[in-house]
Amino acid sequence: SQTIHQWPATLVQPVGSPLSLECTVEGTSNPNLYWYRQAAGRGLQLLFYSVGIGQISSEVPQNLSASRPQDRQFILSSKKLLLSDSGFYLCAWSWAYGYTFGSGTRLTVV
Amino acid sequence: AQSVTQLGSHVSVSEGALVLLRCNYSSSVPPYLFWYVQYPNQGLQLLLKYTTGATLVKGINGFEAEFKKSETSFHLTKPSAHMSDAAEYFCAVSLTQGGSEKLVFGKGTKLTVNP
Question: How distant is the Cα of B90 from the closest Cα of chain A, in angstroms?
Fold first, then answer.
């Protein structure tokens, strides 16, 4: 069966520090992968999606970047965090018009 | 462009009462539609989805939704609310652009169930 792993579950980082969130999928090959951010009262915003290794599409200009170094690995990064980067980050993969989400990472930038 | 509007950011019902969460979409092509539920500090869990065929879709936990093309709606209902239904609910539409598929979400509706 397919599973998606996302870590860490919670993270508190100071402004200006770097960020690396990792997402891995098991039980499937060449999945479409997605990073969403959920900010209070703003629903879920698609940040990045990837259809293959090294292929990244950015949905909104921001302080974040994404990479896909391996088929089932998707990484969200920042060189210098801003207060506005705080939120709940969710990784997802899609299959036949269905999406499975990871358990999320709660990022607080202080 | 496709978008999703959820009417009411907060809905409160009594235990045992009907749950109705509203979702309207705009789409230039027949949409694929989804409802997800999110419990506090957790990821999203798929409740149900509509792709083609029967317009009344049954999901998990007693929820169902009806696709009404004429009204561009996909409202979520449950006949009798349980305390465990308290969560945030998201409606979403699938968008295919440039050969890639992605989900566009509404802003969510937080459901409170009162004893």
Answer: 8
How would you classify the pairing of strands B87-97 and B109-114?
A: antiparallel
Which residues from chain B sit within 8 angstroms of residue A89, using beta carbons? none
Q: Point out the least confidently predicted range of A93-102, B58-67, B78-87.
A: A93-102
Give the amino acid at B22: R
Question: Residue A67, Cβ neighbours under 10 Å: how many?
Answer: 16
3-state secondary structure of A80: coil
Q: Is A14 on the interface with B (CB under 8 A)?
A: no
How far is B32 from chain A, CA to nearest CA, in Å?
Answer: 8
The per-residue pLDDT for range A8-38, each reduced to its tens digit, is 999 999 999 999 999 999 988 888 999 999 9
Distance from CA of B70 to the nearest CA of A (A): 23
Which residues in chain B are closer than 8 Å to A104, comparing Cβ atoms?
41-43
Q: Beta strands of chain B (E only): which ranges?
A: 3-7, 10-14, 19-26, 33-38, 44-50, 56-58, 64-68, 73-78, 87-97, 100-105, 109-114
Radius of gyration of the CA atoms of chain B, in A? 14
